[in-house]
Amino acid sequence: MSADHVTDPRADHQPGFRGNPRPGHTPTGSSSTTAALKRTGPAERAAVVDLAAIRHNVAALRSWVQPAALMAVVKADGYGHGAVPVARAALDAGATWLGLAHVSEALELREAGISAPMLAWLHTRDTPFGRAVEENIDLGASGWELEPIAAAAQRLERPARVHLKIDTGLGRNGCTREDWPQVVAHAAELQESGLIRVVGIFSHLAVADEEEREAETDEQLELFHAAVETARAGGLNPDVRHIANTPGILDRPDSHLDLVRAGLGIYGLTPFTDRPAADFDLRPAMSVTTTVAQNKAVAADHGVSYGYRYRTAAATRLALIPLGYGDGVPRAALDAPVSIGGRRYEVAGRIAMDQFVVDLGTEDPAVAPVGAAVELFGPKSGITADEWASAAGTINYELVTRIGSRVPRIHVDTQPGEDTGAPTGPGL
Prior knowledge:
Elements: E1 2-3, H1 34-40, E2 45-50, H2 51-65, E3 69-73, H3 75-79, H4 83-92, E4 97-100, H5 103-111, E5 118-120, H6 129-134, E6 138-141, H7 146-156, E7 160-165, H8 180-192, E8 196-202, H9 214-233, E9 240-242, H10 246-251, E10 259-262, E11 286-291, E12 294-298, E13 303-304, E14 310-311, E15 316-321, E16 337-340, E17 343-348, E18 356-359, E19 373-377, H11 385-392, H12 396-401, E20 409-413
Parallel strand pairs: 2-20, 3-4, 3-10, 4-5, 5-6, 6-7, 7-8, 8-9
Antiparallel strand pairs: 1-20, 2-11, 11-19, 12-15, 13-14, 15-18, 16-17, 16-19, 17-18
Helix pairs in contact: 2-4
Region (Disordered): 1-41
Function: Catalyzes the interconversion of L-alanine and D-alanine. May also act on other amino acids.
GO molecular function: alanine racemase activity
């Protein structure tokens, strides 16, 4: 097992690298290295991210979509996994595009030396369109963005690369069907003038993760194909059409087209409530770990945490786990599972800002002593992010993305059959 260093000597030899980061710059998501661990000892808490799992998942998803190309979506700091190392691993495994919500996110990847094609699609009036054009970052546009994008291109005397977005039913950004012909005509004029080049047309599936709603996905695809034909009739000839997200990749091969946008799947998580990730040969990449901070004996009927939502049924010992909602662990996750020393327990009472409690169900002080390894979810314990999401009444997307900055990301690179180790203490 090896840690992924901020400055990687392999950079000049791997796809997607443009060289090492500038001196003194630590890219977002690369906060932990072997050297840092040697300086400070084991981390008190960590989100351990296995880059080998990222590469495996990208390769597995590519096998589902070929000959379509794959865009690895690394927005929101790579769904909380660390955008820079995840992007590098995804490119190494055959992804040919990177997807971001914000231009600022794409610029961070450029600053880290990653030169692969990138698309950023969510903008405001203050978006730095000029920087995006300078850095060869493709821009999604729903309509109003075309004018500031064209103005930036004119100022820089180089055409901007644009993907036009059509709203096929999700109701978020994207041009309405009614306005689509006018937006296409305007984009064609700007392309004819040399200010933009429309390289893509895209949309987003709304209910592809609900297989019983197949008819609604069918309708979205029909609307998308009609929009593409309108664009072609209006003089545009896009290189790529893309609408498929992870559920579309896994369940709707008719949505793959020229390019797919893989988000959740590259992190080894499933978008379906009734089909586990293993059904698709996907491996969860993140483990959230810490160690027991206190172990104490209490009497029967002892209250636990705010509101006394939990009281001990008998004399027992309580283990204190130093993670809370200030670290992104959802306060609402009552009875969520947690592994201590390889044994499964449940959260007792409310999760607080910095900590939560586990009822060990024993008076034996040798069980889960201070320093014992804890895993909230991850491959070693077998507890999934889906289980925590269910306990919190949310989705696995949110669960991993919300893990906060107080929890260092430690990037490892395992070999087949090797576990991720225990950077926060003794093995589970």
